[in-house]
Amino acid sequence: xxxxxxxxxxxxxxxxxxxxxxxxxxxxxxxxxxxxxxxxxxxxxxxxxxxxxxxxxxxxxxxxxxxxxxxxxxxxxxxxxxxxxxxxxxxxxxxxxxxxxxxxxxxxxxxxxxxxxxxxxxxxxxxxxxxxxxxxxxxxxxxxxxxxxxxxxxxxxxxxxxxxxxxxxxxxxxxxxxxxxxxxxxxxxxxxxxxxxxxxxxxxxxxxxxxxxxxxxxxxxxxxxxxxxxxxxxxxxxxxxxxxxxxxxxxxxxxxxxxxxxxxxxxxxxxxxxxxxxxxxxx
Length: 283
What we know:
The protein has two domains: 28-151; 154-282, no CATH class. 55% of the residues lie in helices and 12% in strands. The protein has helices spanning 8-22, 34-44, 78-88, 127-141, 145-151, 156-177, 185-202, 212-233, 240-264, 273-282; strands spanning 28-32, 51-54, 71-76, 96-102, 111-115, 118-123. The longest helix has 25 residues, at 240-264. The chain is elongated and about 55 Å long.
């Protein structure tokens, strides 16, 4: 009888971890220019009330009061940027802050960093400009990508792709680091399971044991990816760890993109659909 490649307890822990993340109380707090804040609030509208306003200028920053997983977004103009930066030095930022600076036609639409947990988004009030702000929010949110994407539809694809990129990098490192054939497969497959569950949660799926359909697709793809890697490594000269790392990265990235497309359209769960999408994306 074939041995189950994963520890069921670890799979159960992964279920509970993502289920907890999907119900986390993560809020976006808007401060700064009232007109820009109103536009941001409208874009962030969704089920539930996960947006909070802080009225007042930089002098009132000390009274903002942030929860452990809240993301602060300060919407301002270049003339007040330095004032806000100075005021924020005395504010506790458990998660972080995005200072979104409306630079009009001069906006670069880039996200840069003043320092850790403090991002700057150069934007103008346009679809592309707001996307730069939302990307900065997800970047600052870090491990809170799941509740941010789940609470705010405008953040969903950005949050999902952050989870996918992070997991693909992890599996690339795992593939390169594990020398003994097959020992990397349980770690990589568990990472893939957590990734698919995270994407599902971001797109509003309830994280219950009924997600077994998606898990079957993940496990099947994980087996296929590692088997293909071992076969190729038998015939390719040179450092095999490089190829294993590359396969770990690209295979996981393809699976994540398949999950993203799958849940974007709200397709009914079937055992082979997700792994089939991943194979087509890798081809």
